[in-house]
Amino acid sequence: MAQASLPFKVGEIVEVRSFEEGYRGAWFRCKILNIYTKEEKLFYSLKYLDYDGEEIHHTQVYQQFEDGEEWLMVRPSYPPCYQEREVRKIEADQAPLVVVHGSWQVGDLVDWDRDGCFWCATVLTVKRNEPFQIELFPPPLGEGETYKALRKDVRPTLDWSPEDGWTLPSTDGRKSQSVRLVKREKGVDHVPGKEKTERAKKQKTERHTQHRTERDAQQKTEGDMQPEKGNGEIRQNIDESDSIEAAVYDLEELIVRIEWIKNMLSPDVGEGSTWKYQDYRPSSK
Prior knowledge:
It holds the Pfam family Agenet. This protein has about 280 residues and is of the alpha+beta class. The protein has 3 helices and 20 strands.
């Protein structure tokens, strides 16, 4: 495949995959020094950034292995990565794409930072206040060994292609539920696959709202507009849902309750009656 289909240029910092024995499945940070073709094949001259004194390495950009599949050996620098609780850092970062991860789970794919490179691995065990147990990808894609890894030394594994950019890989058809990608387009956060999730949430909210409306109408018909007994608190829709619809219904119910209280406090003197106020004069005896 020609260089024209790739976004990389001389001077750019990239990550380069290795399938050399002893380093299979590892990604290295490199700087592109030269781009050239040899025997109609595309090559990059690379300087390893985390290995001082290492000689310039010449990598064939597309390589074919024993399974016959052609692999792209170069990808862009890994995007910024945050934990879900680091909300302020995520919002402040202006990168076009941010990786956000929550609590790790068994089966998650991770890149393990060790010896100046990132090794692709699978999480085997997750125990509180203990290192992970991980297993490197099996040969020929990895070294297949088992290690203990600290949480601070792992990041989510991602795939990259010129056509789709960064994507989440899947294991047996299952994508990690611990990781999401946040893309920023014209100041708006866009999470791949989020549209389907948002539609499902909207449908659930609409069903919830309809159910609440029917139930509230029945309660009003039965005259059950008094505050609940017990701890003296009034049930609110926002206790069950943080949607705008729930807040609107709480406001409507509050208005109805205020009207109910006003009616309770107003004397029942019949229609057309009026009040006449007179000065109080104490009787003389």
